[in-house]
Design brief:
By secondary structure, this protein is of the alpha+beta class. It is built from 24 helices and 21 strands. The chain has six domains: 57 residues, Helix hairpin bin (Helix Hairpins); 240 residues, D-amino Acid Aminotransferase, Chain A, domain 1 (2-Layer Sandwich), CATH 3.30.470.30; 77 residues, Nucleic acid-binding proteins (OB fold (Dihydrolipoamide Acetyltransferase, E2P)); 71 residues, DNA polymerase, domain 1; 71 residues, DNA polymerase, domain 1, CATH 1.10.150; 70 residues, 3-Layer(aba) Sandwich (Rossmann fold). The strands form five sheets. Strands 12, 13, 14, 15, 16, 17 and 18 form a seven-stranded antiparallel sheet that branches. It has a five-stranded mixed sheet with strand order 2-11-10-3-9. A four-stranded antiparallel sheet has the order 5-4-7-8. α12 packs across α13, α16 packs across α17 and α17 crosses α22. The chain starts with 5 loop residues before the first helix and ends with a helix.
Length: 671
């Protein structure tokens, strides 16, 4: 029988799906991401569509997954907790709507709800008191986790007067991103297990023998469905049940919306696909439900899913791959940054083979080891991140990674500064630093020397033509002409670009000097405030720090840089070469943000936090450290503060990416 035989492949898929179901639902220790699991199920479903004779009652496509574990007592649900069919495109949404026409006619309204990435939960109240909490399990039988759920602060333990004799509330137990990050910090400090994502953390926190452990974890709950009710009001629409549950004290979604067409459903899904990171919890899609409860009863269900609901899944942002090695790069300031060398994997629409690991502490915190299978995340345009290892797949001989003691380029000692997370090469003549410093000096944001990119700089350094940025202005063009790839025209163009750079504004020169913590916008602030490089070099630390938008850390770094004789010598050679030392770099910026308040959170690619805030202030705005009802917008970068994003959502304040931030700075208007 050939390996591509459909029957054999279906059998293999049955086995793989069952195995990964167990690791996900029973062990809370998955080896693959949700997207990779969905691919297995989709392949099996496609195989069964092409070969209907392979469909069996025991097939994963015909059943709800997740058998109860032996740790907890079994609970039989009053009505099954079914799984949902899935879709990823508007055409599939339309096909779902078309299938409904076989059972119902007339207009259909749809409820759209964010699909939280947590654990489905059934809460049963009898006589107004919480009597039982159960996981979904296999949909028919779940686990009794009442004692643990009772420790979750937001779950009502007692309903108010007039509550029904019996009411079952279904919803999701989840962990916010900010609570997840705090838990992992706590786990690292205590030497405990580090969780790979909020869903994994929520599951691990809930399935504890000791309810006191659960109580120490910050879990949340969101009600999304009314189950069995005895002695309660009659409802006609789903959205009425959610409003009623909110009135009983249950947390419900702030972002749910009832719409009148599948086109509007698609708009809702498209919005949240783009803005999925604007909330302080992870979502992996949108759940779409028929709002009319009588229409739901007419639609009924298949063996494993209701016909009246479907899950619109977002494009996956996580994949697993092999961590082949951990290496270290050397930047323009000598900073040694560890990075992951990965088996290439397509994630978030890009082929990822490298990912920054930031610093030594981050590698230790995540316990990453070469040879690990790791979860890689790439959200939108955010730099790829290694979230953590899949410990179940760790090779037995995998050893903890140690930060190297010597620079990988020049073999000089690496030194970690006291009280800081960063490590630096101590050799200012390190070829790696030289190349990065000179390349940065010539870059568009600095001196904008066309034709002097990193590859050319590396070649010139190797040939002994360049050793520091001042050497650019005494470059031996006769020797350059002798190098492969350089002709009279290219050399003349390079010479002309170098000559033109001498007139660049003072702010560009300051930025180009690679002063630690001094970015493009803070360089412009310095140039405007002092007007000349000599005055900056002569100024005291407190005088520099007094400049609006600079601060003590940046001021200390500037003072330290210009106190070093080597840097002073480079500056004097630049003066002799005729570079512009006078400011301001530009006229006063238009006050586009006068009267506006902009909060910045997370890591931006084009600005440091200080630069972004300085850019706001330079345009007349305020850049406070917290969100209030008076905030105009919140700029959200990678790894944002969960509390700020959550507050923005609570107050209805717009969140912006970097492109939106640039538009706001330029025009003063929200995009």
């Amino acid at each position: 029988m050939a390996e591509t035989d459909p029957a054999r492949r279906a059998e293999e898929l049955h086995r793989l799906i069952a195995y990964h179901n167990q690791r996900y639902f029973e062990l809370d220790d998955p080896e693959i991401t949700d997207a990779e699991f969905d691919e297995l199920v989709a392949e099996l479903a496609a195989t069964e569509r092409d070969h209907p004779e392979l469909v069996t009652e025991s097939s994963p496509t015909q059943n709800v997954w997740g058998a109860p574990v032996e740790l907890f007592a079994e609970v039989r649900h009053r009505t099954p907790m079914m799984s949902l069919d899935k879709t990823t495109t508007y055409d599939e949404l339309l096909a779902w709507g078309k299938r409904m026409e076989r059972y119902i006619s007339g207009d259909v309204a749809f409820d759209c709800e964010l699909k939280l990435d947590g654990l489905a939960m059934s809460l049963l109240y009898e006589g107004g008191r919480l009597s039982r909490a159960a996981t979904r399990g296999n949909g028919v039988v779940g686990e009794d986790v009442t004692a643990n759920v009772a420790t979750i602060a937001v779950v009502p333990k007692q309903l108010g007067p007039g509550s029904p004799e019996v009411v079952e509330v279904r919803g999701e137990i989840y962990m916010t991103v900010s609570a997840f990050e705090a838990l992992n910090r706590q786990q690292a400090e205590s030497g405990g297990r580090r969780f790979i994502n909020p869903r994994n953390a929520a599951a691990g926190s809930l399935r504890q023998k000791d309810a006191a452990v659960t109580a120490g974890r910050e879990l949340s709950f969101c009600a999304y469905q009314l189950g069995a009710v005895v002695g309660g009001p009659d409802f006609k629409y789903h959205h009425e049940t959610i409003e009623w549950l909110g009135g009983l004290g249950f947390p419900t979604s702030l972002y749910a919306k009832t719409v009148g067409s599948l086109e509007e459903v698609d708009h809702y899904c498209a919005y949240w696909t783009e803005n999925r990171h604007s909330v302080d919890f992870e979502i992996d899609g949108v759940v779409v439900k028929v709002d009319d409860l009588s229409q739901r009863r007419e639609l009924g269900a298949t063996s494993h899913a209701p016909r009246w609901a479907i899950a619109y899944k977002f494009p996956p942002e996580e994949k697993t791959t092999l961590l082949k090695d951990i290496m270290v790069s050397i930047g323009k300031s000598g900073k040694a940054t560890p990075f992951a060398v990965l088996e290439p994997v397509v994630v978030g629409g890009a082929n990822v083979s490298l990912a920054t690991l930031h610093n030594e502490d981050q590698v230790k915190l995540k316990d990453l080891r070469p040879g690990d299978t790791v979860v890689v995340r790439r959200a939108g345009d955010v730099i790829p991140e290694v979230r953590g290892p899949v410990l179940a797949l760790r090779p037995p001989d995998a050893s903890p990674w140690a930060f190297p003691a010597k620079c990988p380029i020049c073999a000089s000692p690496l030194q970690r500064l006291p009280g800081e997370a960063d490590t630096f090469c101590t050799n200012v003549d390190c070829p790696g630093q030289q190349v990065q410093r000179i390349s940065h000096f010539a870059s568009r944001g600095a001196m904008d020397i066309e034709g002097l990119g990193e590859r050319t700089v590396r070649l010139f350094c190797d040939e002994g033509l360049l050793a520091d940025v001042a050497d650019i202005y005494s470059l031996d063009f006769d020797r350059v002409r002798q190098l492969e790839g350089f002709a009279d025209i290219s050399v003349a163009n390079l010479a002309g670009s170098i000559q033109a750079s001498k007139a660049r504004p003072l702010a560009n020169l300051l930025f180009g000097l690679s002063v630690r913590h001094l970015g493009e916008n803070t360089s412009a602030l310095l140039a405007r405030s002092f007007g000349h490089l000599d005055r900056i070099m002569e100024a005291g630390e407190e005088e520099i720090a007094a400049v609006e938008g600079i601060g003590q850390v940046v001021a200390a770094s500037i003072k330290r840089f210009f106190s070093l004789p080597r840097n002073r010598e480079v500056v004097e050679r630049l003066r002799a070469a005729g570079l512009n030392f006078e400011g301001p770099s530009q006229p006063s910026l238009p006050q586009t943000l006068a009267g506006k308040s902009v909060v910045v959170t997370g890591t931006l690619e084009g600005w440091s936090r200080e630069e972004a805030e300085a850019a706001v202030k330079a345009r007349g705005g305020k850049a406070p450290g917290s969100v209030s009802k008076k905030t105009t917008a919140v700029v959200v970068g990678a790894d944002p503060g969960g509390a700020k994003v959550s507050k923005a959502a609570e107050f209805g304040i717009p969140t912006l990416d970097e492109a939106g931030f640039s538009h706001l700075l330029e025009t003063g208007d929200l995009p």
